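Kindly go through the entry underneath: sequence plus fold tokens. Please state briefly how this chain folds according to its tokens.
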Amino acid sequence: MASSSSSTPSSQSPKKYDVFISFRGEDTRLNFTSHLYYALCGKQIYTYIDDRLEKGDQVWPSLEKAIEDSTMFLVVFSENYAPSTWCLKELTKILQCSKNDQVHLVIPVFYRVDPSDVRKQSGSYQKAFEKHEHKGINTQQLHKWRKALTHAADLSGWHCTFDRNEAELITNIVKLLSRNWTIGIKVKIISKA
């Protein structure tokens, strides 16, 4: 998997990161996302999360570059994902990359939020957009973000409710990403022959 310190040849993975995780830090950084991140790293799946930002780097250009340099994306939707303009910008960029490059895989994880709230921008997502409108964010930008949320919520993913075993869910996510990474490498090797 992609890593400058990995023993895997760089010719097998042209992207810098295997996975980019988009998430709202205040909701999941210290629990679900951190466990997911370490599980992926344990399988040598080179994963980007925003704590990899170097001190002094400009935040958005660094995030944008990391998204462009990733092959697969996990979008962890949580209650406070939509109030974050950073998260919405990440999601829009992720979907743009996946549209422009068929190699990308985008998988939503609905962490203690109803997928229909994301899809229809209802519940906490509706309140977030009302606040964005109140702050004066232009209608065109709001439309892009709404469209991105609807598109991402229409993708097959996982729903993590309060009564779901998170360890089991993380294991299933890692298995899926490992399988897709392996398939991607095989396709690249076969196409070079």
Q: What stands out?
A: The CA atoms of residues 25 and 31 lie 10 Å apart. The first strand starts at residue 17 and ends at 23.
